[in-house]
Amino acid sequence: KLHSKLLMRNVAAVLVLALLVALTTAERVHITHVTANSHLNTPAGWSKLGEADAEHPLKLTFALKQSNIEKLESLFWERSHPASDTFGQWLSLDEIADLVQPTAATVNTVTQFLKSYGVEGQLSLSKDFLTVVVPVEIASQLMETEFHLFQHTDGRQHVTTVQRYSVPEEVASVIDFVTGLSGFPEISPKYFVPESADAAQAAFPVTPQVLRQRYNISTTNFGQNETNSQSVAEFQSQYYSPTDLKKFYSSYWPQNPNYDVTKVVGSNDPSNPGGEASLDIQFIKGVAPSAKTWFWSNPAFDFFSDLTAWINQMNSEPNNPWVHSISYGDQGALTKPASDYQTRFDTEMKKLGLRGVSIIFASGDSGTGCEACLYFSPSFPATAPSITSVGATRFLNNAIGEEAAVESFGSGGGFSYHFAIPSYQADDVSGYFSSGVTLPASRYYTTTGRGTPDVSALGIGFQVLVDGALERLHTLTTLVIASSLPSLGIVFTSFL
Fold this sequence. Notes:
Elements: H1 2-25, E1 28-31, E2 46-51, E3 57-64, H2 69-80, H3 93-100, H4 104-115, E4 122-123, E5 129-135, H5 136-143, E6 148-152, E7 157-160, E8 165-168, H6 169-172, E9 175-179, H7 197-202, H8 208-214, E10 229-234, H9 242-252, E11 263-266, H10 275-287, E12 292-297, H11 303-315, E13 323-326, H12 339-353, E14 358-362, E15 388-395, E16 403-405, E17 414-420, H13 426-433, E18 449-452, E19 455-458, E20 462-466, E21 469-473, H14 478-488
Parallel strand pairs: 10-12, 10-13, 11-12, 13-14, 14-15, 15-19
Antiparallel strand pairs: 1-8, 2-6, 3-5, 3-9, 4-5, 6-7, 15-16, 17-18, 20-21
């Protein structure tokens, strides 16, 4: 028996060794999480300084292929539809993890690939993301690429690759993408600054009281139920100042002293508040002051790597807030993520939706997104069918009342080339195209894709405190919709 056990152990060891050898010598496949080869470009304002420090740490996230996606999809639509008998019967993080967790073979293939380079990965609680932190030297070997140090004209430095990267065929077949390798931070502010100062001052000043009056939101401190919660997610090193938030409260909502943020996930630099983050946190709390409020912030790598980090954080948090407002997206035809990334992102939103979480995304701030006017490019992630996308309006007569689309910037909208029309908006999309409205040439857009936005709300003239100074800013007001939900006591889905 002892001989038999030793023999079995030796066989197992040989098999593992054979797998490691196969993974390190197998033919490799070029992959990317962004539009094909777009990561090979260096954006304006950035210049290469030289090779990256071999010890510089990089955080790589492998999205493992999931199981039972069709079952997840069915459950999501069934339990998100108000007419369903199972509406609102949400699942826990553990239940969803058990439903979609990758096969043991998938996990083993990726972990053995990493181990062959001396790397141990960390699985998310959802069991379908594997994250590693490795020095540039090891990342270069893992992905067969080179990393360089770049510097922006403003002095900011960034380590990334602008070369192709790859993994062995066996690994490529069991992952959807890898993030944390390529891309550059977005340097420009994420909130819209109008071209003229006159446009900024002409907009009707919007405060929390204005939003409450316009949208018939209770003037009492609603949302006091202990289970009510909301959140904003920020990217590109956008932070908020608790001092600004306190001052904002004293100016616009003095009767409610509950200005504290319940929890910060990630990092926050109060000494360096940004316009977008300040607007988001001040107004979501200004409209729903009693709801527990979280602030999520991810560092400035490329947007989709940071978005993946946010997803991974959500997947590892059993008790997420019920409502999330995200005023970010990408409307560039050449900078959107690859199809596999878009599909996986929508799956991740379905996982959150099946937990009862509502996700509200901005629909973009570049109108149709017509780059060089080759074709229209609606913003992503707003086009994901499982989230709610929000566009921006203005007061038509510069007074509280009737609204129309903003004019000083283009509120995003259009039809997805990747996602088909979901059933909940099929009649509306069909009705729009048959309504007789004047349309551009058909070569610029598709008539078979998911349409955005779902709803619109005020997006101009927001009174915001940034580092102690009052500014009038413009944004895509996901927070207007998100902050009203605690007063409704319902889960907000895309059925609008």
